[in-house]
Specification:
The protein is of the alpha/beta class. It folds into 2 domains: 2-87 and 274-298, NAD(P)-binding Rossmann-like Domain (Rossmann fold, 3-Layer(aba) Sandwich), CATH 3.40.50.720; 90-266, NAD(P)-binding Rossmann-like Domain (Rossmann fold). 32% of the residues lie in helices and 17% in strands. The chain has 10 helices and 12 strands. The chain has helices at 12-22, 48-53, 68-71, 89-105, 108-116, 140-151, 174-183, 204-208, 227-235, 276-291, and strands at 2-7, 27-30, 40-44, 59-62, 80-82, 133-136, 156-160, 170-173, 187-190, 214-218, 239-244, 264-266. The protein has a 7-stranded parallel β-sheet with strand order 8-7-6-9-10-11-12. It has a 5-stranded parallel β-sheet with strand order 2-1-3-4-5, covered by helices on one side. Helix 1 (12-22) crosses helix 10 and helix 4 crosses helix 6. It binds NADPH dihydro-nicotinamide-adenine-dinucleotide phosphate and oxalic acid. Oxalic acid is lined by residues 64-66, 274.
Length: 309
Amino acid sequence: MKISFCCTDTKAEPWLAGLRAALPGDEVEQWEPGAPPVDYAVVWMPPQQFLDEQPQLKALFNIGAGVDALMKMRLPLHAAVVRLDDAGMSVQMAEYVSHAVIRHFREFDGYEADVKQGKWSYRKPRLRTDFPVGVMGLGVLGERVATTLRQFEFPVLGWSRSPKEIPGMQCFSGDAGFEDFLSATRILVCLLPLTPGTQDIMNRKNLSRLMPGGYVINVARGAHLVDEDLIALIDSGHLAGATLDVFRTEPLPPAHPFWQHPRITVTPHTSARTLREESIAQIAGKIAAVQAGLTISSLAGVVDPKKGY
Ligand code: NDP
Ligand code: OXD
């Protein structure tokens, strides 16, 4: 089998070496314009020219969990899109979100500021029951985050497209469950895929429904959040603040107000990184399974083009 590697913003050599070692019977090459046709591609934000030149592709293995950028492109007619299915991301996401929730709940920013001024001060302990955490998106990452937060005994609520039952948490689904989910949530975590149905979902109307003193943690995509609505609701006092890892434009432009806002913590799209070894093992395992006779559609992480994730 022939496999092309076509990833923007990614150092190709270690990926090529890893894929070749994991698939010794296959040909793995970095794509160059005009290259001969291949069977599979390992991609991250490939140029449209690559997709147009390879109409025979059977599958595109995305080296990320989110496929929103890919789904906006003109894809080869019969190519399945396969996203990373965890591959070491869920534990990172659970760490990141737990850190952000606990930092806010335990007022560690306040302690840090006090210590900088040489102040030995106590704050009144807050009640966990006053800080229900609502996780939007209960997929591979969202469910791991939600169950980790339960370990810290936060009340946890979840919202997904289809109904779910997860022990220890109240699950809501679809449009019918959205308002009740929001109004019972104080700390909102976004782990939705970016699709036409979820774009701008954290807007003024929806964020206003959060409990007073609400807090927003966006670790999915920047376009889920309406930036100016978040700032207005923090400045009005309805929301206490936000931790944001993803932005409409990345890197976040130097003049963007998020950088300097005292109640907003910014990180550079780093909450769950693609881990090369785990990702190569997963993708090579899937290619080998297909070569051994498994249908591509039965692989974990195959994207449903109708749903867009
Ligand atoms: P999954 O596809 O496994 O899960 C998506 C979840 O969102 C599912 O529970 C799904 O519901 C739910 N969902 C989708 N659309 C809707 C909707 N319209 N209304 C309600 N619920 C909806 O994705 P992952 O957990 O693997 O990843 C989530 C996102 O995280 C990725 O798409 C990516 O954008 C982002 N990400 C960010 C990273 C970072 O470093 N910041 C790293 C990795 C991923 P159902 O279960 O019913 O299908
Ligand atoms: C991803 C990401 O989608 O890194 O994997 O954001």
